[in-house]
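Project channel, design review

CF: Before we commit to the Streptomyces coacervatus constructs, I'd like one complete example in the thread so the newer folks can see what an input/output pair looks like. Taking ATPase.
RD: sounds good, go ahead.
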Amino acid sequence: MCEEHRTESVLGRPGAQRTGPPRSCRPAEARRAVERAVAERCRATHTQCDTEALGDALLVATELTTNAILHGGGVTDFRVDVLATGVRVSVSDRSDRRPVTRQPADPRRRGGVGGHGWPIVCRLARDVRVSALPAGGKCITAVVAFR
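CF: and here is what came back for ATPase:
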């Protein structure tokens, strides 16, 4: 589950080999982990939470986990870290394929379902990195800046 945050992995070390079935991480669980991490940071530092950045981080976590499930063979690792400058969300999956922006079938973008997740992540995050994992698969890390 996506319950832990900060620098601890929810599902184990990225790229680590597993015995038995991998644990799942659904988008709703990822959102709850991001909310908890940001709320804990705000309580610990006695600061007002940036609700706009939190909303963006929630959407980024949703899109990354959804894409890992739909296109990457499932989530193999999920991490969320609250930095002084923003929220870092990292999602690993089994696929070596890098994300792509799908071109709409209709030039007016009518009737198309899906294909919006990666552009949303790239637009909302200040920094997005895709890294190959030693044991196969990839890790996508996106940082959503506080305002």
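RD: helpful, thanks. The CA atoms of residues 35 and 55 lie 9 Å apart.
CF: The helical segments are 27-45, 51-71, 117-124.
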